[in-house]
Amino acid sequence: MSVRIFITYNLRPTTSIEEYRKFSHEVDQPLASKAPGILRFEVFEVRGAGEGEPDFRIVEEIEAESWQAWLDIFDNPDVKAAHEGFQRLCDPDSARTHWTEKV
Known about the structure:
Elements: E1 3-11, H1 17-33, E2 38-45, E3 58-64, H2 67-72, H3 77-89, E4 90-100
Antiparallel strand pairs: 1-3, 1-4, 2-3
Helix pairs in contact: 1-3
């Protein structure tokens, strides 16, 4: 059974949404979506919350063959390089990762 992984985070104050979109579309999404064991990789910008301000700006939804398949993509040198771009643009302290299985 596949797992769904949700990663939420904010951008660094110095990162514009346009800069992040360019990185996401040109580097992150193509690389992650083609990784072995990754069935689907989508990224969403949070536009609002039911009440108050959203807790995070970006949500990644990943479907992977397993949690281990997701972890294994980080052994790829290209993914490691892309992760450096993530660290530069996004606030790593705000990132939260949740892996789930369908009920």
